[in-house]
Structure formats: structure tokens, C-alpha cells
Amino acid sequence: MTVQTEPDQRRPEVAELEHAWHERPSLRTWLSTVDHKRIGRRYMVTAGVFFAIAGVDAIIMRTQLSRPNNGLVTPEEFNQLFTMHGTAMIFLFATPMFFGFGNFLVPLMVGARDMAFPRLNAFGYWVFLGAGSVMFISQFAGAAPDGGWFAYVPLTDRPYSPGRNLDVYALGLLFLGVSTTIGAINFIVTALKMRAPGMSLNRVPLFVWAMVGTSFMVVFALPALNLANAMLFLDRRFGTHFFDPTHGGNSLLWQHLFWVFGHPDVYIIVMPALGIVSSVLPGFCRRGVAAYPLMVLALVTIAIISFGVWVHHMFATGLPFLSYSFFSAASTLITIPSGIQIFAWLATMLRGRIIAGVPFLFAVGFIVNFVLGGFTGVMFAMTVFDQQVTDSYFVVAHFHYVLFGGAVFPLLAGVYYWLPKFTGRMFHNGLGKWAFWLVFIGFNTTFFPMHVSGLLGMPRRVYTYPTGLGWDPWNLLATIGAYVLALGLILVATGVVQAIRRGPAAPDDPWGADTLEWATSSPPRPYNFAVIPQVHSLHPVWDERSREAMATGDVLAGHRAVLTSELDGDREGPVEMPESSLLPFAAALGLLFVVLGLLWGQYWLAVLAAFAVFITLARWLWPPHRTPEEAGVAREGRAP
Amino acid sequence: MRWPARRRGTPPPPRGAAALALASLASAATVLAGCSTGGPQSTLDSVGFGARRAEGLFWLMFWISMAVFVEVLAFLGWALLRRRRHTVRAGGGDATGFVVVLGVAIPAVILLPVYGRNLADLDALARPPGAPATTVELIGHQWWWEVRYPERPGAVTANEMHIPAGRTVRVLLRTADVQHSFWVPQLMPKTDLIAGKVNQTLLHADRPGTYRAQCAEYCGKQHAFMALVVTADPVDRFEAWLARAAAPAPAPTSQAEQRGRAVFEGGACASCHTVRGTTAHGTVGPDLTTIGSRWSIGAGAVPNDRGHLGGWVANSQTVKPGNYMPPQPVPASDLPDLLTYLQSLR
Q1: A574: cis peptide before it, omega within 30°?
Q2: Do B121 and A383 touch (CB under 8 A)?
Q3: Are A212 and A105 members of one domain?
């Protein structure tokens, strides 16, 4: 069913709008665009490429571990492989991928024309691309980080890791942190100020709530990681001894700082995925997600409690009993908001009329896997059991159920669900179903046996293992599963490419879904909505009044968007949106050279590049020409 | 409330959904089958009070999880099979009661006593079956374990720990370099060895036996080969072992051993290793006073036999790449005597 909400394209106002937002295809506009949809697609494609490379790392590891005493890779290579796999999947794939979804979808879902800060948005992407490239190129140069994604000191301090590897880690993540932080701020402001009139907070789609929750967690959690990495770099390069107990430092300080970031980060990754599930279900259950207020409450609760659980990553470090009992309680408690969401989705299905579809299959697969990951999650809240199986393959199984089962499955649901909107093309249904079954079976065959090998005492991060400990069959099974999983993921990629190249044109609203991104064309025009929607409910596309308002409203002319109030979404008036610009690209390039200068120890280059960044930012922020009234010129004839 | 209808053909039969539920149950069955297997490092074959607590907690959580999993699958199956009936219409209502009862109330009722059990277990780990009878000092090195018995000066060994069975042993944990973690799955959950800190754990083996342990915190290149065997002996045998371990190395009893000792003392060996009772006082590598009786070479890298020992001495880098012992240019004529001597150190 196609919702006819767009005004007739021939209307002269729309033609003028097309002109105001048009970007002529050229290298210059490719580098200077600030269109959130183009930037969002770039995030997704780039993160997808990083996912593939980090996935190849995983396949090599699984091949090495398929049998005991295997010699496919050297210990050095293996240590780089698991470090890069973890670091890349967490920092360069998961977060940027969901930021890509958010970039494309948040403005569309709230009925806006772009993100609140379009140039900052472009800057964020270029920084991400630079940071990711630096980290991956280091792998091909054989100098990739090799201290684990958690980079515990003293192993990562200079005496034990004298190479450039850990400098790449510390600087790469600091560089990337710039991108993540400004992305998060942009989501928060977009969701608070750019919503369509009438979209009060109780009418905000759950995916947008999830992106806002994630963004607040980023804003509060990331400084801890940035601080830790800055201190690590200073320790390594200049001997500041922050983490060195032989000179008055403290090696546990790193672990506290890292996990103050690290645990919220799990939810930073999973929360947008939960939002995707809440977006996909209504279309396939023919009703809104049940218990919306509880769902929002659950997201907000997770965002808060996630800051009080970090010590469960340190249950074996010998901290006091009181600390253990508190963090164990918080870690137990945080399962309840996840339970709320699971049962709300089940209620949605039970009270809905289910229609099959590839995105729905992935959402159901997600529920099965995420529930299993949740169970082991509660187990890790239990201090004594945590101490027994932490740093074993049991924990590897657990967090892959949470992060692959709980985040990648929804992500794949989202890929199939929004592919028509992203590309304007429909995917091949049969190919999608095959992909689902291979991914589901492959995933469980890979990661379920790891529970067992972990319980049988197999530690993590070992490049090989002796025979006779009962681990061999479970490892072989996991390796077979990994190949099936890889095949499934290749089919997903094939499906996407096939859709883009040969897929039939997508209707505006192929699923008959409820949120505003389906009320515009597939793919959307650069200005998203000619008429800024007036929202009357949580499900505007299903609601006659909102649809009528979109069909009959006035076109908002010019390169402008509408600002609304934070809580009630009351219209505050139009605002001029920034034009495309090369400055974000230039600033990101400058920042890249600052990082490279620091990395190679060429501090003159870092200083020069920092100066260039400063000049670029000054040009970026240079005040516009002001009229005499604005500048405060006194009116003639008033002078005494 | 009116729900928009979607004009489409009849929905396909839900074979996929049923298969999904089946696959999930099959995988749950797999773990049950798998867990019946023990192993020298299995957490599910506990022999000490700490490991037993953890194992009990695991099975409790496992059965609760299975019950909840069946509940979730039942709801899911119901929802998916229900759609076979083409007359089904989407219903209104917010299902708040359903979500609050199943998502908040029931989990809270289950989790509260489980958390209580967790506190009891945590407390129990600090209350061993008896007061500590022996203290062992365990020092982590990249990539081997140094084991000392402070109550018996001189008793130093490596990559093996002997304890009296049926007695509580206090283990003091510290590291000489990076972070490691001490984990004897059958006896006790793990405790980390942290730079600048002395941690402590308690071991209690209910019955004599050997229990494999392995470093559980990533510690660099050879983290995979940093294993330790805990041998729990009856008290009298343990005391005999301790007396032997504290004594200087026995004097060579043959000409070959005598020549071997000369090679050891005169060559590079002595600059890194100690053999008590000789002039070799190096402290970089493991104390070799009892090397002949140890279970492995290189902390689990290879078995301790003459062939592997020879290979290790000549070039340990081919056996355990990256370890801190450089290749030793021992003349081929000296090597057999050196090996004979090392094997005699029991």
C-alpha cells in the first residue's frame, strides 16, 4: 500500500524546493555534502566494510582453533587478530553502523529535513573514516594493536609493548572518540529540537528514543575512555607513570576507567538494536508495540543503571566484598528492563496479526538469541560464578549472544526492513530467507559450543590449546558454524547488491508501517518532506489526521527546517539550514595529520596540523555578515 | 480502534517459526549432553569448596534459565502459530499488565532469592572448611609460574604447586610483570595477579589428585602456554615432597651428571637459572632444582622428556616462540651430559 502523502511534484513550490536542495553530482559535492541520508549511507557502507574485514579476522582465528596445536598463524598474528577483531567490531563496526542507521532514519522518523548540525555530521563521518583507516592499515602493516580490545596495563605499557601497536590503539580510539561524541550530541539535539510539530515526547518513535538513550550514554561514558587512552599514550610516549605501580601509579585505574566506559558501551551498541526491533515489529504485527510508556522507561532505566555495573568486569581483581555485592545487585537489576522489552514484543505479537517477512524473521531470531544471552548475563552478575567463568570461552559465548544475537540480528532485520527506503529498491525475498537460516544456524553452531568449552575450562585469547582437555569437538563445531555463518552473511551482502543492481523499484511504504519515514518517497528527496508533517499520534502514517495534514499542508519553502519545543513539539518557527561545505572534510583531514604526527613522533607535523585545524574551525565559525540593525548601529537623527 | 488492513495474498504457513523453536530446543539439549563431560580443567567436576559453590550456582541458574526459555518459546510459538487462523485481527490494548507481571514481577521474585544465594556464596568463599594450614606464594611471570613456600625457606619450584589434600591452603598472588590470573577450575574460581597488589585466594582439595590450572588473563604472546598443575597429596606425602623441594639439589652420582653440572654452572644456564646447592644463582628464569620431576617444560608447552628437554635447551624459540630464553649454543658433545644432569634433578 502506498500512502499518498506527498504533494503533487508539479507544484511550483516543490520545484523551487528541489532547486534549493539540489546537489550537482561532482567530486566537490561528494566531499562537501551535508545531506544526512548520504552521510548515513556512507556510515553504513564503511562500517559494513570494516565488519567484513573484522569478520575475516574471526574466520582466520576460528580456522586456527579448529584443532589443537594448530600452526596456521603465529602467536603474534593471533594476538593482533583477536585484538583487531574486538576493537573493530565494537568501535569501527557496531557503533558507526547504528550511527549510520540513526543518521539516515532519525530525521526522517521525526519529520525533519536534516540533522540539527549537518556540517558537524559530515565532519563526524570523515573523522570516523580516518580513524578506521588508520587502525586497519596498521593491521596490514603488521603493527596492529595486540593488547586485546581492553588493552590492560601493564601489558600495554611501553616496557611490555614497545612497538607502535598500542600507540595506534590509543590514538586511533581518541581520534574516533571525536566522531562518536559529536554524533551523539547531534542526535540529542536533533531529537529534542527538530521534531515535526505535534510530535510531543510521548509520540516519539522507540528507535529515536533508543538513539537518544545511546547518545546520552556516549556523552557520559566516552570521556572515561578518552581519558584512559590519553593517559596511556602519555605513559607510553612520555613516561608519565599514571598506570605504573612501581612509580606511584595504579594499574587497576586503567580497568576502572575502561569499564566505566566499557559496560555502558554494551548498551550503547545494543540499545539502537532494540529500537530497530521496536520499529520492525509494528509493520509485521499490524499494531504498535505494546506498553510504549514501559518501553521508554526501560530504555531510560538501562541508560542510567548501565553506569553502575562496571565492576562485574573486575570480579576477579580482589576488590572488597561490599563493592562486589553492590555491583552484583546492579548487574542483576539491569536485566529487568530488558525483560520488559522482551515481554512487550511478545505481547505485540500475541495481540497483533502477524505477517511473515524477512525482517520479521530476523526479529524473531533476535528474541531467541537475546534471551539466551540475557540468561548468561544474569549468571555473570553472580559474583562467584562470574569469577569461575570470566575470561573463559563461556564469556565469549555470552557476549556474542548479546552483541551478535542481540545487535547484529536486529541490524540485519533493519537492513532488510529499510533497504527499500535506503536504496529505492526491493530485495529478493528467497535470498533473504536463505540468508536468515544460514545466519541463524551458523550463529548458534558457532557460539553455543563456546558455552561448553568455557565450562570445561578453556580460557579466552589463547592462540592454541593442547588436546586431551575435552575441548576439541566443541572447537571444531564452532569453526564449522563460523563458516556457515560467513556464508549466510555473504548471502546478505549478495542480497543487498542484487537489490541495488536489479531489484524492482520500491514503493514508498512497502510494509504498510507506521512511522514518518514511510510517508515520503523511496529514497527520500534531499529535503525529505515538502510539507513538514503535523503529527497527531505515535503512529502518524496510520492515523488519518496526520496523513491528511501531510497531504493538504503548505510546502515549507527554501533551504529551511522547522524548530519545535523540546517537550511538547510546539512549532517555534523555521530556521535556515547550513549549505554544503568543504570545511568539515578539511578539518577532519587536518585532525588525521595531527594523529599521524603524534603516532610517528613527528610532533612538528602534529603542531602544524593542529594549527591548520584551528584555522579551518575559525573559518567554519566565522560570524556571518550582520545587518546594521543586528550590529547595533544607532539610527540617524537620534544623536544628541 | 481501526487498524489499517494490508491487501495481500494469504500469509505463507509458519514452517519457519516452528523450525526456529525446534532448533532452539535442540541447542539447549546439546548443552545438557555436553555438560556430562568432565575434564582436567572442568568447572563442572568440582573438588574444592569454592568450585562447588560456583557449580551449584551454575546449575541453579541453568534450570531457571531453561524454565524461562521454555516460557518465552511458548509465547513465541503461540503468537506465530496463531496467525494460521486467517480470521485473526490485530487487537488493541497496551498489555501493560501482561508486561508488568511477566517482565517485572516474576523476574523480581525469581532474582531476589538468587541474589541472596549469590551473597551467601560470596561469603562462603571466604570461609574455607578449615583454617589455612599452609601458605603458598605464587608469582606470575611472562609466561611461567614461580611457586614458593614461605614457611619452608628454599622450597621453590615452577609451574607446579603441591598442596596437602583435605587441608586449606592460603595462596598469596603477585606478579613480576603484567597481569595474570590464577584459575584452578576444579578447585577455586579465579583471582587475578595484579601489578602493585598482593591478592589472596584459598584452595582446598577434598581428595588427592592433580588439577590443571591455566593463566586466565591475557598476558602477551605466550598466554596460551602458561599452565600450572596443582597436585594434592595426602598430608604425609606432601610433607615429604616439601622437605625434598626445600633441600639443595642432590650431588651428581655419575660421571655424566658431574660433567653435566659443570656445563650448567660454566655456561649461560647459570646466569638465568638457580640450582640450589650449586654455583648457579640466576633469578631470571625458573628455579631448576627439581626440574627432573616436573610435569612439563615451558609451563605446558611440551612434555618433560629427554627429547623435548634437548630441543628446549637448544632452541626454545621453536617450541614456545617469543619466550624470554634465547637459543643456547651448547656444543653437541656437552648436550647429552647436560640433559642427564637436568633429568637427575628430582
Answers
A1: no
A2: yes
A3: yes
- Chain A nearest C-alpha distance from B41 (Å): 5
Searching chain A, which residue's CA lies closest to the CA of residue B41?
A: A457
Interval A123-179: pLDDT, tens: 999 999 999 999 999 988 888 899 999 999 999 999 999 999 999 999 999 999 999
Distance CA A175, CA A265 (A): 17
Domain boundary among A463, A479, A506: A506
Task: Give mean pLDDT, residues A408-430.
Answer: 97
User: Residue A631: inside a domain, yes or no?
Assistant: no
CB–CB contact A325 B122 (8 Å) = yes
Q: How many domains does chain B have?
A: 1
pLDDT tier at A4, thresholds 50, 70, 90: very low
What gap in Å lies between CA B280 and CA A629, rounded to an integer?
91
Structural domain containing residue B321: 255-343
* A434 and A512 share one domain: no
Query: Residue A490 domain-assigned?
Result: yes
Is pLDDT of B6 > 80? no
Using left for φ > 0, alpha for ψ between -120 and 50, and beta otherwise, residue A24 falls in beta
Q: What is the ipTM of this complex?
A: 0.92
Closest alpha carbon to A519 in A416, A413, A421: A421
Question: Is residue B317 assigned to a domain?
Answer: yes
Same domain, A147 and A271: no
In a domain, B61, yes or no: no
Which stretches of A194-250 are DSSP H helices?
206-238
SS3 A305: helix
State how far the Cα of A553 lies from the Cα of A530, in Å rounded to an integer: 9
Strands B156-158 and B168-175: unpaired
Report CB contact under 8 Å: B189, A388.
Answer: yes
The alpha-helical segments, DSSP class H, found in A456-534 are: 472-502
Average pLDDT taken over every residue of chain A:
94
The CATH number linked to B316 is 2.60.40.420
Q: CATH number, domain at A404?
A: 1.20.210.10
- Give the pLDDT confidence score for residue B3 in this predicted structure: 34
Residue of A nearest to B87 (CA): A353
* pLDDT one-digit tens code per residue, A356-381: 899 999 999 999 999 999 999 999 99
Q: What is the pLDDT of residue B126?
A: 92
pTM for the model stands at: 0.94
- Domain ranges, residue A544: 1-14+30-44+91-244+508-601
- Domain match, A40 and A103 both: yes
Residue B323 lies in a domain: yes
**pLDDT, tens digit (0-9, with 9 covering 90-100), for B219-257:** 999 999 999 999 999 999 999 999 999 999 999 999 999
Contact B43 A152 (CB under 8 A): no
What is the number of structural domains in chain A? Answer: 2
Enumerate residues 6+ apart whose C-beta is below 8 A from A552. Answer: none
Higher pLDDT pick, B32 / A322: A322
Q: Do B76 and A368 touch (CB under 8 A)?
A: yes
Pairwise CA distance, residues A371 & B19, whole Å: 17
* Mutate which: A1, A64, A155, vs B, most B CBs within 10 A: A155
Is any Cβ of chain B less than 8 angstroms from the Cβ of A121?
no
Is A551 a domain residue? yes
Q: What is the mean pLDDT of chain B?
A: 89
For residue B92, the model assigns a pLDDT of 76
Q: Assess whether A495 and A538 both reside in one domain.
A: no
User: Residue for cell digits 574471526?
Assistant: A58
Does B43 reside within a domain?
Answer: no
**Residue among B17, B88, B216 whose CB faces A392 most closely:** B216
> How confident is the model at residue A140, as a pLDDT?
85
Q: Which residue of B has its CA nearest to A354?
A: B83
- Residue A203 within any structural domain of the chain: yes
Question: What is d(CA B283, CA B267) in angstroms, rounded to the nearest whole number?
Answer: 15
A132 and A216 inside one domain: yes
